[in-house]
Amino acid sequence: MQDLTAECWRLEGRFVIATIGDLPWWMHQHRDKLDEVRVRL
Description:
Largest sheet: none
Radius of gyration: 12 Å
């Protein structure tokens, strides 16, 4: 996911909604809820 985000930033720059740091941060913020939701692409 981080590689995909990095490539999107390389191609689209600031128009990408997430940064490389956002992905682990979002997962860490909601660790107690991961069993309640599906994470998918």
